[in-house]
Design a protein that fits this description.
Elements: H1 11-19, E1 22-25, E2 37-38, E3 44-45, H2 50-61, E4 65-69, H3 75-83, E5 88-90, H4 96-107, E6 114-118, H5 124-129, E7 132-135, H6 141-146, E8 149-150, H7 159-170, H8 174-182
Helix pairs in contact: 1-7, 2-7
């Protein structure tokens, strides 16, 4: 279970980071902590992290593509995607690897230039299809074993932001993205 953060990335790892032009995130357990609350009327409530949200905005502001690919369907996810102005939102996905291929075609970004972030066994086929597979810090053992990188942070607790910062810093774009954000 690699943690590139534990050491300086190798030239090969930096080359991989520099090749990434799109991100695909699972939702439950990645953009949320995996908990689902049902209200008395059946309304589903999910908790999203604001730092992750800003990270997603920074990624998009840098001119890159981003997708949400989730096995469930939720109004909360639709609302979060709308709030973030996400173009690529795929819900109720059975075969996430096939949906990732669809995202690749629709965005024009080759699979080898997409980073997928997952947390459980349902995400592994999608992770194996991507150029960079990342598991969040509290992912299942199987998911961590399928990943090239494991975040230090847990899903829904800053892992998405960590991935975005890591890739943008590896591409030497972080300072520019921050400066553009303040401008």
């Amino acid at each position: 279970m690699p943690h590139w953060h534990d050491k300086n990335p190798t030239e090969e790892q930096l080359a991989l980071l520099r090749s990434i032009r799109a991100l695909a995130f699972d939702v439950d357990g990645v953009l949320t902590d995996g908990g689902i609350i049902y209200g008395t009327s059946g309304m589903e409530i999910k908790r999203f992290d604001c730092k992750d949200g800003l990270g997603l905005r920074l990624w998009l502001k840098a001119g890159f593509d981003l997708a949400i690919i989730t096995g469930r369907e939720s109004v909360a996810v639709s609302e979060r995607a709308k709030d973030l102005n996400l173009k690529y939102v795929y819900q109720k996905c059975g075969d996430k690897a096939e949906v990732l291929k669809r995202f690749s075609l629709e965005s024009g970004v080759p699979l080898k230039e997409i980073c997928v972030v997952g947390d459980d066994i349902i995400d592994i086929p999608m992770m194996r299809s991507a150029g960079l597979a990342v598991a969040v810090g509290d992912a299942s053992i199987e998911c961590k074993e399928a990943a090239q990188l494991v975040t230090l942070k847990a899903g829904g607790r800053g892992a998405a932001r960590e991935v975005i910062e890591y890739i943008l810093k590896g591409r030497f774009l972080w300072d520019k993205v921050i400066a553009d954000y303040y401008a």
